[in-house]
Structures are given as C-alpha cells and as structure tokens.
Amino acid sequence: MILPRTGIGVDVHAYAPDNDPQPLWLGGLFWKGERGLSGHSDGDCVAHAAADALFSACGIGDLGTHFGTDRPEFAGASGVKLLGEAARIVRAAGFEIGNVAVQFVANRPKFGPRREESQRVLSAAAGASVSVTATTSDGLGFTGRGEGISAVATALVYAVPAATQSDSA
Question: Would the pTM of this model clear 0.90, i.e. be above it?
Fold first, then answer.
C-alpha cells in the first residue's frame, strides 16, 4: 500500500525598505505598482512556502538546506524557479507530488482577480496542482500593520515504488 505523506511550509518576508525598493513577486506573478519584499531571492513567500512544504513532506531538509542564503547562486532567484527545482529534487528522491495548497496573509495585493493565473504558473513549475488562497489578519500583527507577508503551505506526496522509478529514469 502506498501511503501519502504530508508536509508543512511557512515563509515570511518583510517589505523592502523605502531606500531599497524591490519589485513585488508573489504567487509566481509580478505585481506592478506594489511594494516588494526583502529576501535573498525574489522574496516570493508563496512559492517559497510551497517548496518548503514539499521538502517537509519528503523529510529531505528545508528551503535553507537546498537554497540557503549561503548559496550565492540563488541570490535574486525567482520563486517559480526555486519551486521547479524543489519539485525536481523531490522526484529525484523517489516521490511524486499529489498537490500543494498555499494560503498567504497580507493586506495587499488584491489577489482574487489573479488567482487562476498564479495557480497556473505555480502548477506548471511544480508539475502538479498548486492552489493558492489569500486572507488578511484584520489589522493584527506584522501583516496587519503592513510590514510584510506570510504564507503557509501544505503538500501531499507519495513514494514511487522503486521499479517505477527505474522504468521512468
């Protein structure tokens, strides 16, 4: 019997300071006119949380293990690229991805009109279904004060039988 495994990923980024503005990349999309996030890569906490949930589900480390700030080659990297690479690492470790669900907490941007676009971009990167939802914190905490964005993700993976892995290699 093949049992699914679940993982959780959390990512948080502060908004970039006024004296070092950054573009906003969130959910794999560029948000023109919105204040960007600080980070080693592009700061896309939705994509980062999704990747971290995949690693968690497989028990193969976390975002820092694979793309840490000590890795200069990932400076400024796209969250979509990191999610795609995470999916590749997960599959190379003998797992297949069932799905990933992400919820981010922020006052802005207004996500609903671009939800489907974001889900298409992230699903293509992961090679599996990625759903994204958004909420606010009703003015509470750092997200409510407009200091940054947080995201929480869950992932479902399952081990691929060894015979199937060698057949597809």
Answer: yes
